[in-house]
Write a structure and sequence with these properties.
The protein is built from 6 helices and 6 strands. The protein is α/β, with parallel strands linked by helices. 28% of the residues are buried.
Length: 224
């Protein structure tokens, strides 16, 4: 683990040799959840009611409007900007994935595609095998049949989920450490329950213009 990085709540892009990461914790929309969207929607409605789901949808829409305004207001040099994305594997087909998600209506990926068209570098961010593990585990956690598990069984699944989330965070931090170059700005879109900050290299300055992530020990109703 690296030394603690500088934390700031304000957006400060410093020209020169500094590596800067703009960290945007996000809540995934129904589109962004992909095949898990319907199970998440069903589980949320069952646990909290239909009104809670409507509030979640409204909150997510507001959040992406704020992020779009934030990105548009940045004084970025796209040619020195890298974009890192939750759930985007290193696979050689990153742009195709982003285009497909944009076509399906993802505002998150629409931002990525716009930045890419302006000259920013789209970065495969995650380990494909880890994403597959998480997808399979999430399906188990969201399976109504799992409701019959005793507390030990539920605790074991939750522990697996936390361990896997940490593995993903370590991989993402390593990816940023290895690829973000001196004088560049990285923009990271990552779910609220993640927190890669402890494993980022000590020379990377991190800005949280939308607030800090909740982290896996926190509570968020909308993350998987």
């Amino acid at each position: 683990m690296s030394d603690p990085v500088e934390r700031t709540e304000t957006l400060q892009i410093v020209p020169g040799s500094t590596r800067t990461l703009i960290y945007c914790p996000v809540i995934h929309s129904l589109v962004d959840l992909g095949a898990l969207g319907t199970p998440v929607q069903s589980a949320t409605r069952t646990a909290f009611g239909a009104e809670a789901w409507r509030r979640r949808v409204h909150t997510v829409e507001q959040m992406w409007t704020e992020i779009e305004q934030l990105i548009e207001g940045m004084d970025l040099d796209p040619t020195r900007t890298r974009v890192y994305q939750d759930g985007l594997p290193i696979c050689g087909h990153e742009l195709e994935i982003v285009k497909e998600m944009t076509y399906k209506g993802s505002r998150n990926h629409r931002i990525l595609l716009r930045l890419h068209s302006q000259g920013a570098t789209l970065m495969g961010t995650e380990s494909g095998p880890l994403l597959l593990q998480e997808y399979n585990l999430a399906k188990r956690l969201l399976d109504p049949g799992q409701q019959g598990l005793d507390s030990d069984g539920r605790d074991a699944l939750q522990m697996q989920a936390r361990t896997l989330l940490k593995s993903r965070d370590l991989f993402i931090a390593g990816r940023i450490n290895e690829t973000l170059q001196a004088g560049e700005v990285g923009i990271l879109f990552l779910g609220m329950l993640h927190d890669v900050t402890p494993w980022l290299a000590s020379d990377i300055r991190v800005a949280y213009p939308l607030g800090t992530p909740v982290g896996s020990d926190g509570v968020a109703e909308s993350e998987t």
